[in-house]
Amino acid sequence: MAVPARTGTATPGVYRQYGQQQPVQRVGPNVTDDYERWYTEATSSNRMVLSIRSGIHSEIAWALDRLYRLCANDQFILKTIPGLTDALFEWPEWYATEGYLVAEKYRLFAMPDTEDRKRRHALESIFILRNSATNEPNAYELAHHPRTLPLLFDALSNLIPDTDMNAEFVLNAMELLQAISAGIILRGFTSKLKDPLPTLLQIAGHSSNRSLIIASLSLLAQLFSNTQNIICLDKDSPALAASLRYLPLFVDRPLVEASLNYLYAHLSHSPMAKAFLHHPLMPSTLRVLVSFLLSEQVEETVNLDISADTRAIPATSVVTPIHDLTKEELETLIPMPEPQRCYEWMKIMFVATPEGELTQVDFWNLYKDAFTPFADHHPVLVASDVIKNVNVVFPQAQAMVLPGPPQRFIVRGVDRRKDTQVAPRFKCLWDRSQCSAAPFETPRDLYEHILEHLESSENPEPPCLWATCPLQPTPKQQLRPHILTHLASSQPPAKHPTQDDMITVASDGESYPFVNPTTRKPPPPRHTSISYTRPVADPPSAALTALLIIRILFRSSFVATTDTAPRADGDHFGFPGVVEDDEGDDVVVDIGGELEGERRGRRAFGLSPAQISPGRDEQHFWQELLSLEPDRAFLTRLLTALPKDECLSTHKLLFHALFTVCLSFAADRKGKDTRTHAVDTLSIMLRTVLAKNLAGWEVMEIFAVEVNDADRVFMEFVGMIADVLGDEKAPESLRHRVLQLAVVFTCSISQLSPGAYLLRRDLFPSIVKVITSPGTQRFTFEASLLLSILANFHKSDAAKLNPYLQRIRDTKDTVLMRKICWAATFALDAAVKAYQEISDDSIPTFAKSIGALLTSFRPDRALAVQSIDPPRELFRNQPIEATVSLLPVFEFLYFNPLFAQVLIDVIPPPDSKPAPDGKQSTQVPPLAYNILSLSSYVLTHASSSPSPRTLAYGNLALNTLLVMSENIQIMSVFCKPASSKEAIRLCRQRLPLLPVPSPTRAPVCALLDCCVLWLRHNLHKRLEVSTFISCVWTCHRVIWYLQKERRRLEYDWLELWKAIVDLLGFLSGKLDSLVTTGGVERLVQETTRLLDLALRRGDLFLPTPSALHEFIYEVVRSSAVIRKQTLLLQSLEKPSPADHRASLRSDTVSKALARILSTATYYEEQLSSAGTHSAKDAFRIVSKDIEQNGLHNAHDVDDTDPPKHADDVVGFIRVACADGLALMP
């Protein structure tokens, strides 16, 4: 068995023996460092030989380095250089006889430099000998050299192999011995040669070094393959125990192959095979061998349909009558106020159906008939209002007029609700089946009904009256759980997967139910097919070795006996099949009994093996398969239904084969359709398999079979993605498909360990090419999404190791940034329009009001006007998945300082060219304005759904606003008045509405409005404290910038002050019922600091004295709420704070709160002494005092820049992966 050479340095490609060189005329010798021929001259004065024997360490190291580069070449022959072989033996012999003693003295400490250099010389020398032995002439030379065996046997006998100092030396010695072991006989050693067998058995059986174990088992297998050495075999050999111990480790292919090779060499000797039949692990070893064979065998299933023509009829008839209002439903609806009653009535009476259609007259008549009788006490709506409400309950519905004659006024998209037949298994059988109640829809309703029977009984210990239940009188408390035993499950009875709701009949005249089912003629089967499996490819060599071992044991059990052959019955499944456990009567008493061993072997086996037919040509099969376009819907449905455990067992090899084959076809530039189909197949397979909640190692096992092989397989996958994305000559459609494949993989793998392979090869240049290339720039949305998800891989714990974060931080490619902004602008604009399609929140004008009034009288436009405050459930699916494009914008804005300028610049269209008449082409407003518009909608509806997704987007939006507020460049632009063309559309879909803004006000006003919307509409018991803190920080940063730059901002400041005071009031009043993860104290502190800053510097940023007076009056009016914050902070304060910063921040907040309360108390005393009786008088007195005496208790503020609080949104990656995956086909 040849030992492959191990190299670590590139080896020159061409070498010729010195004797074969043609004489050439040279001016002088070429002695450059990379010219090896000069040092291989076959002379006694060869420089390398002289250097090795010089005793000078630097010369020795130089010569060994030369030989290290030469030894792996097949034209390097040791005997052509006189004295080289003997020179190479000197250092290893020293170490094997003397040097190892020196090394043992320094087990715990570093060796002296001189001794360590000698040890390194010995290691390098034996390594060169080992590599040289891979060449047959060198192996022959070393095998017959008188110094070889003494050196190797001394090394194996003297050195302790498991120490770090000796492990590499022993490993090289064993591999060198394996290369020359063909003629070695393990007996008859002289006194000078030590027996290496005990050491080899000790290493194989007890070593913890994997490499040494593999080398020892391989060497022993090679030695025992010589028939003259089989006398040294022992049935209790430690190597045998080791090979059995490591055999089940299928994931470690080298170790399993070494174990199989030794086991085969051991059992090839007939006495050892017969002795192994007595081994207690023999049956389990057979199981492992069979399992290994099955795992290595890739099969395909062939189905042959032999079904006959049949006739089937429905087993049951389901009646679906139109639903009418029940008495209970009507009694519930009548007292409700309008339009809520109309909403609830529509939800009960109708369902959303895309193809449904009802006339508007039907809507009105049904409503009128139901509620007109009660109109005296409960007014009803007019017809037009009823029709308008349809679109509130069913947003997809549409009123329209169908042309005639006659014209039809209809509503499309809704239909009448239909009642399905109630399952009879929920029928009450109380009172011995005499209960007259109708069947119930669910077991819960039936259980509550039975409890009514039970409660109506005056007997404290009534009997169970369910049908024929024999339960004796029992206390009611114990009878309640007993009743549950009579209730059927809410799910229908389980059926076989092949069973449907049809009945097969034998003739056309039969009907169901049958008159006499026991005498009916049996019908033919409807679905009959023959399925069989066949191998796809030839088995690997390791599987053949396992099969040979099984054959040896089988012959040892059967061939040598006269007993009958194994039988085929219910307990035996053939060879190589299921292996049975030993029964009690099979315990061997006489271990040396040959017949007993054969009987144990026959019990372990079943029937004789069957022949396996050869498989088809694999490459031709895959070529034909991938030439067909994959059926995405069918494959998705099939792979989704596949259980997780089958993916890890039965189908693991199939997934691996399909994955690797698709990779090779996708990387083949010569393929056309097969290349595209391979990428589509990979996308479908990865999306469905990775959705099964797999662990990282399970993903690697499915697609790489062995975890050790995962590096090669997944790096080929990543390499294919990088090559195709970066290949500008590849078809655009193919690059787009590969880009989507990369997004599917990154979103599906999320934070699992296989995602790290995407970090080992930098995809940033390939992604940039996709974004900046004219032909693929339309795919910028997917490309930027991929980049942001890659940048978020384990960002919280391994950010420094992520190359994409560094790329985003360092890039200066403004073209790339503009393309990302261009794609994000349209994605965010689509997200805003999705909100507006649910409810039109445009600012009303006089023309719009008149137009809405006139069109409301037309039946075909009855749905044109909607409610100003639609139900929250209409927004539960918002924002749309395309909003995830905000993530790459945030990443660039947070990490790259150049992105801020791109964010506020007007965005030109991609590849825009000047117009011929000199006019500028149409430009898109800055992305920053779209972010403000979208943030207003996201923050308004963040709590409309209980899903954490909407809150995650709210947190992302607020953190984006915080980063913008902390950027001086952005704030300087935001504080300038905007032109009418750059108007920002803010959300007006929830009451109370924001004041109507001026079209030219500064964009920073919209930023503050977004904070107000969050503070107004998200105060709930399940409080998102961290997001509220980010909101307060944003307001604080804006006010700090305004007062520092002395900018008096025209803004409705009173809306902000009220929102902040409402937040403090909510915290002080609902603290005990809040459900949070902590941080309420920090939120109160930051809010207090915000009020203190505004109070002390209000005269620098508030636009007018009246605005300052309103602010002070709001503080005075809310003094009771502010005073509660003192008690709130005291209750939240920890007894012994360990954080010095937190303690310092608490002292600062206490002073700020004292200043606020001092100001409020002063003006309260002024109002009390003046005896005011109205709010108007109070405001007038406060204003007059400020104008006369100035603001009370005003103090200067430190002008140093406050710390930046913007933080990374690490937790958003899960939402980003889910939405990114939903956007992919």
From TrEMBL:
InterPro entries assigned: ARM-type_fold (IPR016024), ARMD3-like (IPR039868), ARMH3_C (IPR013636), DNA-bd_RFX (IPR003150)
Highest rank taxon of the organism: Eukaryota
Keyword field: Membrane, Transmembrane, Transmembrane helix
SUPFAM superfamilies the record matches: ARM repeat
Region span, Disordered: 509-534
A GO CC annotation given for this chain: membrane
Annotated localization: Membrane
Main localization category: membrane
Residues in RFX-type winged-helix domain copies: 342-418
UniProt keyword annotation of Membrane present: yes
Protein known as: RFX-type winged-helix domain-containing protein
Native source species: Rhizopogon vesiculosus
